[in-house]
Write a structure and sequence with these properties.
By secondary structure, this protein is an alpha/beta fold. The protein has four domains: about 140 residues, Resolvase, N-terminal catalytic domain (Rossmann fold, 3-Layer(aba) Sandwich), CATH 3.40.50; about 110 residues, Hect, E3 ligase catalytic domain fold, CATH 3.90.1750; about 140 residues, no CATH class; about 60 residues. About 40% of the residues lie in helices and about 15% in strands. The chain is built from 16 helices and 17 strands. The strands form five sheets. A five-stranded mixed β-sheet has the order 2-1-3-4-5, sandwiched between helices. Strands 13-12-11-16-17 form a five-stranded mixed β-sheet. A three-stranded mixed β-sheet has the order 10-14-15. Strand 16 and strand 17 form a beta hairpin. Helix 6 crosses helix 9 and helix 12 runs antiparallel to helix 13.
Length: about 500
């Protein structure tokens, strides 16, 4: 700590995981303690990082820590000479995060402080001490996770709720301890859930029910109903008062059933009927009508179907200044969409942190596969004395050790948080076959969630081929993509406009 003439500008960092019982130190308390420590040692506070609230620092975290990333950037920019936190676990509960912070401090000659102790990470003994603390913090996080999983299973066996609140229910918590008291039927949403089951049992299609719900209410603030919301709901046994844990039906749940078990089973028989799954009674008959938009008009009106004497075409419903044959435009968009789903869609449904972990997993997967392939090659390569470079026993032991690691790395590299319908398509080698098996409404749901489509005017009148730039596709994750807004057209989604201006169903 003897650095004559050096001012130790401090960077104070605070973080808190979810703490519903309020037994841990809050971020504000951590920052106050850090300021007090800085005042004691005359360290001017250069910047405070206090926005990582309800953020885990373990490898199982689902949300990125933006302020931790900002802290690393501040260190690299030379904004401080010492980093201050309440304890090591505030910085990291993951060895990889520790290494990133350690390297940043070493490269920029920045000291690390926690638990009132200052560490100079250019020194071997300090790196060893902080590494041991990082290992302890990670182990503690893993222990917490194991205890939570055991508790969750134990709660499930008792029929108690856990995780997200199913749509149609609400929960009552103790205001002092934060303990869950009960899960009960939501007074407004519960009757809607029951109505949905009754309408399906009466033979109504999910599509028609979703259209009706969109006019009556939002599923969540700012989120309209989609077909997959309804399909997930009518398959959830929790609404029949059953406790499901990791796909296993354990017992009667503690919460009341919104739907009578007899009605629920009746609906299951209906939705499993192969004849119903292949029905073609959806009102929408055209893939891109109401989804694709005109690229020439300022307000980007929808395209609708125009019927000529010999073929169907999509046409702008505003100024009627863009038009293209339906079969050509459908084929062009589908080829591009399937290519995107197969190769490029996954990052669009991941956070930046998840994308980094997936990239690391792909590197790890390649190294493990190469190692296993090398071992198998050695087992088939023989020395001059006729013995293999690697015995069958050694190869078997190596396969037994590496194959679970390969499976885990492959699963981590493919993680995607997308709607169920898209999850079944993203990154799949047989995406074309899966797409062919979807209904028209399912395909349109995928399109709405994945791509914005604009049709521009042809270079000259009578041009039939699809010129570059004629169809503009902006996929999810690309600049300019937006989820579709509700159509303002009063024309029904399944109607076709004829060349003479009339409409036909």
């Amino acid at each position: 700590m003897v650095h004559p003439g050096v001012t130790f500008n401090a960077l104070i960092y605070g973080r808190a995981s979810r703490d519903p019982k309020k037994k841990g130190r809050s971020v504000a308390d951590q920052i106050d303690s850090g300021r007090e420590l800085c005042d004691t040692h005359n360290w001017p506070v250069a910047e405070v990082f206090d926005q990582d609230v309800d953020r885990s620092a373990s490898r199982h975290a689902r949300r990125a820590r933006k302020d931790f990333e900002a802290l690393l950037e501040a260190i690299a920019a030379g904004k401080g000479r010492i980093v201050v936190a309440w304890e090591a676990s505030r910085y990291y509960r993951d060895i990889e995060a520790y290494i990133r912070l350690r390297n940043a401090c070493m490269e920029n000659n920045v000291l690390l402080c926690y638990n009132g102790q200052v560490y100079d990470l250019t020194k071997r003994e300090d790196r060893k001490a902080t590494a041991q603390d990082a290992i302890a913090a990670e182990d503690e996080a893993e222990g917490i996770r194991d205890r939570v999983l055991r508790t969750t299973r134990a709660q499930a066996k008792k029929g108690k709720p856990h995780g997200r609140i199913p749509w149609g229910y609400a929960r009552h918590y103790d205001p002092d301890t934060g303990d869950l008291i009960e899960q009960y039927e939501h007074p407004e949403r519960g009757p809607i859930v029951r109505e949905v089951f009754e309408r399906v049992a009466a033979g109504e299609t999910e599509y028609s029910i979703v259209r009706d719900l969109r006019t009556r209410c939002e599923r969540l603030p700012g989120m309209q109903w989609e077909i997959y919301h309804l399909r997930t709901m009518i398959r959830n046994r929790g609404y029949a008062g059953r406790r499901i844990f990791r796909g296993e039906d354990l017992r009667d749940a503690e919460w009341p059933a919104v739907v009578e078990p007899e009605l629920f089973e009746q609906v299951q028989q209906i939705i499993k009927n192969p004849a119903r799954q292949s029905t073609k009674d959806h009102s929408v008959k055209h893939l891109l009508s109401g989804i694709a938009r005109c690229g020439e008009c300022a307000d980007a009106p929808c395209l609708r179907v125009l019927r000529t004497r010999s073929y169907l075409a999509y046409q702008c419903i505003g100024k009627f200044d863009t038009v293209m044959r339906e079969d050509r435009m459908d084929a062009y968009v589908q080829v591009a969409l399937l290519d995107w789903l197969r190769w490029r869609a996954a990052p669009a449904f991941r956070t930046d942190d998840e994308d980094k972990r997936a990239a690391n997993a792909r590197v790890r997967l390649k190294a493990l596969e190469d190692q296993l392939e090398e071992a198998r090659e050695q087992a088939t390569t023989f020395r001059k004395d006729g013995r293999p470079l690697l015995s069958v026993t050694s190869l078997s032991a190596m396969e037994e050790r590496l194959e679970p690691l390969i499976s885990a790395a492959r699963a981590e590299s493919e993680v995607v948080h997308a709607p169920p319908l898209l999850t079944e398509l993203i990154g799949k080698e047989d995406v074309a076959q899966r797409w062919a098996g979807l209904t028209m409404e399912q395909r349109r749901t995928v399109l709405r969630a994945s791509v914005n489509i604009r049709l521009n005017r042809a270079r000259a009148r009578g041009v039939r081929r699809i010129e570059p730039g004629r169809i503009e596709l902006t996929f999810r994750g690309e600049e300019g993509f937006s989820l579709p807004r509700a159509s303002t057209s009063r024309r029904g989604p399944g109607r076709v406009r004829t060349a003479g201006g009339e409409t036909a169903g």
